[in-house]
Amino acid sequence: MNYDVTVIGSGPGGYVAAIRCAQLGMKTAIIEKYNSLGGTCLNVGCIPSKALLDSSEHYFKATHEFKEHGIDIGKPKINLKQMIQRKSEVVDQTSGGVEFLMKKNKIDTYHGLGSFVDKNTIKITDAEGKEQQITSKNTIIATGSKPMIIPGIDYDKKRVITSTEALNLSEVPKHMVVIGGGVIGVELGSVYARLGAKVTVVEFLDSLIPGMDSTLAKELQRVLKKQLGFQYHFKTKVTSAQTKGKEVIIKAENSKGEEIELKADYCLVSVGRKPFTEGLGLEKAGVESDERGRVKVNDHLQTNVSNIYAIGDVVQGAMLAHKAEEEGVFVAEALAGQKPHINYKLIPGVVYTWPEVAGVGYTEQELKASKRKYKVGSFPMRALGRARASMDIDGVIKVIADAETDEILGVHMIGARAADMIAEAVVAMEYRASAEDIARMSHAHPTFTEAIKEACLAATDNRALHV
Ligand code: FAD
Ligand code: NAI
């Protein structure tokens, strides 16, 4: 065999798996069909979206908050070309970093489409059509996902777009209709709303970010409407989107069965993503997938073919970069004979709007449905000195603990820097802390983290100090 392990796909799942395999002494190869390494996350996902979220946030602050801070800069102007250019530079640097890591760890990188010839042989076809074959004792499938397009949507990539095109627009839309009020819809909707677009969200369910705790959804809806003028059509299902010249006509049906028609110059389709296995030749290796096209795996992320594993967006579970990374490490360590573990309930979810939204553990809806007895402690950001100092008073932190044992079951937050603060909750929950444990720990003053302590005090015995 040429390799102990071959990883197909260089996203956060694949490249992290490759590094860990190499660290553990395995001769490792990685195959990526594009020239640039890093997958969806680095090239058209996490990193570029956060770069644009950051730039648009600066613009929003300059136009809406600087004056109050006592900073007069005249009327700021958007240079979208430069904003996109900076984003692309961040992507190139980050992808270059992955290339460096592959070399540093002596991982052989192949550029081209990887496809199974049999369970130990993989063919690599490069952009010019040149083929080569390698053999591998084990293979990790990490081929990720692609945007989902629903029937009736005329996805022309110019006016009816997905997140991929939305990261490269050459003008700020006048009116952007966002189909799907999930994570991509609110993040990229925020980018263009901050730059001046009118944003209308059409969502099939009854709130934004429906998978998260409903307290967060309610607060996010309120803030995005107040701050950026977001408009919503909830319980409304889009049935078609067609481009006519420079206009997109979107048709939808609400819960009363009435038809709604919206007109926009851009329509962002963000209705979820689907696993990507096209051209991979799963059938040649005998690897099974499920009814949703995900590669079927057992608890050890092993497919029905014992030397082939699969991780990340292409398998079941949350489609998140850090989930993919944990799975990459898990498979590498399992292959090395170790006994790794992933606590899926403690994989945090974060939405990078402003205020940021983050949650880990059980939501209140889930606990209600399971009939488990719980108690809730909440603390509003507006009661926090640090939040007042920076004018970030929107948001709330909610801690849910077991009614009898006080063990923290879920932490849900919306507020400034929630994306980073959720790590405290993950650590606490991994060590099975009680709400009182956190309530008794010193949190630096003035910081946003004091809101976590206060929410834990509230959950303990309704002992919050500052409300
Ligand atoms: P991917 O990153 O999709 O990588 C798969 C790679 O495999 C791709 O490079 C693909 O070209 C390659 N490939 C596929 N088939 C083959 C083949 N046959 N041969 C060779 N190569 C192949 N997640 C977060 O946690 N935080 C965020 O902030 C976040 N923001 C996001 C923003 C956007 C706009 C989008 C779209 C996604 C975002 N995500 C975020 C989700 C995140 O990008 C994915 O969960 C993550 O990239 C999944 O990693 P992966 O390794 O499973 O697959
Ligand atoms: P999503 O699953 O988060 O949201 C899709 C939304 O579209 C759902 O709320 C759904 O009810 C709605 N929908 C579906 N069909 C519809 C229709 N016909 N009409 C109206 N609404 C409809 O998916 P999204 O936003 O596309 O993101 C894909 C994945 O990317 C997510 O699963 C997420 O994990 C990942 N991601 C993560 C980010 C982060 O961690 N910050 C950022 C961006 C993406």
Explain this structure to me?
The protein is α/β, with parallel strands linked by helices and 467 residues long. It has three domains: 2-147 and 274-342, FAD/NAD(P)-binding domain, CATH 3.50.50; 160-271, FAD/NAD(P)-binding domain (3-Layer(bba) Sandwich); 346-459, FAD/NAD-linked reductase, C-terminal dimerisation domain (Enolase-like, domain 1). It is 34% helix and 25% strand. It contains 15 helices and 22 strands. Strands 1, 2, 3, 4, 5, 6 and 17 form a seven-stranded mixed sheet that branches. The protein has a five-stranded parallel sheet with strand order 8-15-9-10-11. Strands 18-19-22-21-20 form a five-stranded antiparallel sheet, with helices on both faces. Helix 1 (12-23) packs parallel to helix 10, helix 3 (46-64) packs antiparallel against helix 5 and helix 3 runs parallel beside helix 7. The site of flavin-adenine dinucleotide has 38 residues, from helix 1, strand 2, helix 2, helix 3 and strand 4. Flavin-adenine dinucleotide is lined by residues 8-14, 31-34, 39-41, 45-46, 49, 113-115, 142-145, 163, 184, 276, 279-280, 312-314, 319-322, 324, 352.
